[in-house]
Amino acid sequence: xxxxxxxxxxxxxxxxxxxxxxxxxxxxxxxxxxxxxxxxxxxxxxxxxxxxxxxxxxxxxxxxxxxxxxxxxxxxxxxxxxxxxxxxxxxxxxxxxxxxxxxxxxxxxxxxxxxxxxxxxxxxxxxxxxxxxxxxxxxxxxxxxxxxxxxxxxxxxxxxxxxxxxxxxxxxxxxxxxxxxxxxxxxxxxxxxxxxxxxxxxxxxxxxxxxxxxxxxxxxxxxxxxxxxxxxxxxxxxxxxxxxxx
Length: 246
Fold this sequence. Notes:
Blueprint: H1 7-19, E1 23-24, E2 27-28, E3 31-34, E4 44-47, E5 54-55, E6 58-63, E7 66-79, E8 83-85, E9 94-96, E10 103-109, H2 116-132, E11 147-151, E12 165-170, H3 173-192, E13 200-205, E14 210-216, E15 226-227, E16 234-235, H4 238-245
Helix pairs in contact: 2-3
């Protein structure tokens, strides 16, 4: 089947963007993000690459060290993929495609989270906003809200962050905190022993509290983005945005 733009999903994205003090992009289009994975049978994902619907913005958090604004890079629309199930069959990975094609928003922060505690507080605030705005119920255990944590370290005094690793599809705010704490410790041990840090995608084992490698991480060029030919660009008018704001 050919894709069709979901107007309600656009409204939800704008609603979240306004709540996060973002700039709303008037001119939008979708792109194809090409990669091979078992839960993506058509070989590409429809996403916003060059023109995210929401840019900038921030979410305020409070931790034991005080208040802080977590800066957002973007909020963009894309379609969900399927879900790989590793615990159904002892010998095979099963794939659930029921959610494939369902619209979602992805929120990307700037690299300004400095600890697992800050990440915990940030996700708690995101979930509060999602529930208050009725964008979704925010239940991570059911997949309504998911988190991929990008983690890197640097020596004190350095201005450039080191090689990052990404821990995928964490299913609770508590597990996000646990995964970041474990991965930070692992990266520091690698750096202190002089071993190279590989840019990887990793997963978190909640039973024993550690992470494990899934695959080497792709760069943006590997996705071969190009404009989605089956969806027309869309322009947002000020009246439409203000109606959502009210």
